[in-house]
Amino acid sequence: MKVTDYFKQAKSTLISFEVLPPLKGGSMNSIFSTLDPLMEFKPPFIDVTYHREEYVYKQRPSGYFEKTAIRKRPGTVGICASIMHRYGVDAVPHLICGGFTKDDTENALIDLNFLGINNVLALRGDARKFDGKFIPQPGGNIYALDLVEQVQRMNKGVYLDDTIIDGTQTDFCIGVAGYPEKHFEAPNMATDLQYLKAKIDAGADYIVTQMFFDNDKFFKFVDSCRAIGIDVPIVPGLKPITAPYQLNSIPRLFHISFPDEMTEELLKYKDDRKAFKQIGIEWCTKQSQELKKKGVPCLHYYTMGDAKTIKAIAEKVF
Fold first, then answer.
1. Residues 260, 239: Cα–Cα separation, whole Å
2. How far is CA 10 from CA 4, 118, 226, 298, 314, in A?
3. Helical segments of 36-75, H only
4. Domain count, the chain
5. How many Cβ atoms sit within 10 Å of the Cβ of residue 21?
6. Residue ranges of the alpha helices (H) in the chain?
7. What is the C-alpha to C-alpha distance for residues 135 and 121, in angstroms, rounded to an integer?
8. 179-226: per-residue pLDDT in tens?
9. CATH number of the CATH domain containing 162
């Protein structure tokens, strides 16, 4: 079933989770150990991230280092099929521009369609660690907007090979990302919102936000979206802060800020990891409770493999 159909049928706020594929060489046990304790909350769908290739430098016998591209977290399509088989819930694979040609994307969509997966989250994706900026794949989509347009063309039966006549029409429900504090590459919030509206106008069906820690910023973001004609469901993405190093790493990596009240409380316990984590859990719980009270369609949790923490929050909210 489509994600948006779940929203339409729901009588109250839903819950969903996002998981990472295990590192290459790992097994599905890491996914199952994360999701098994969370299935009691009856999520209608589970998101599975996709990751582009990364560069590593391998030293050769000569002493020189060779730059090699590897995909460290493969398996998104297979993981989605496994989740659907084990739990009987829908899976939402992420599609990204980086590292994939348009042909690669089309073939992935064909595989997903064969598996009965009809939801995708279309993202540009991040830059590789050593690139400094996002570099698109030659022959690939450059922006998430391009990816949305490609999916929509397949929904109309239009494939890259123009000799295909009467091609099968897919029926993908398309999610896209939104940024309550603006995407860091956008010059300002107004421009970022226009980019988002272009994705909706191209056929995206719903929005999932980047994590945030100040609900007022989410509510303002929703109001701003509605003011420019974006009327699709907007799902808040949430992640509890659980370790002191995140006070620096999250703002640096994700370009988001922490509320003064939360920061002051966390700093009191930066040398007590257990107490620090509890503050993070309590803050995310309060966020969740307020968002649910406001009637958001769904609370989407970035699990990062930490089922125990997410479960502690969900038990107090659902």
1. 17
2. 10, 19, 21, 9, 18
3. none
4. 1
5. 23
6. 3-9, 29-35, 76-87, 102-114, 144-155, 189-201, 215-227, 246-254, 260-267, 273-293, 307-317
7. 20
8. 999 999 999 999 999 999 999 999 999 999 999 999 999 999 999 999
9. 3.20.20.220
Tokens, residue 284: 């995310």
Residues 6+ apart with CB under 8 A from 45: 3, 6, 16, 89, 90, 91, 92, 119
Number of Cβ atoms within 10 Å of the Cβ of 309: 19
Distance CA 303, CA 39 (A): 13
H helices, E strands: number in the chain:
11, 10
Single-letter code of the amino acid located at 290: E
Residues in the chain: 318
By CB atoms closer than 10 A (0-12, 13-18, 19+), residue 155 is middle
Amino acid identity, residue 185? E
pLDDT tens by residue, 47-78:
999 977 666 666 777 766 665 666 667 889 99
pTM value? 0.93
Residue with tokens 């309550």: 180
User: Which residues span the domain enclosing 123?
Assistant: 3-317
Give which of 55, 54, 43 is closest to 18, Cα–Cα: 43
Catalytic residue numbers, as ranges: 18
Q: Which amino acid belongs to residue 170? A: T
Residue 227: CA atoms inside 13 Å, Cβ hemisphere, count? 9
Single out the residue of 233, 106, 109 nearest to residue 176, CA to CA.
233
The 3-class SS string of 284-315 reads HHHHHHHHHHCCCCEEEEECCCCHHHHHHHHH
d(CA 83, CA 176): 21
Question: Considering only CA atoms, which of 246, 271, 245, 257 is closest in space to residue 212?
Answer: 257
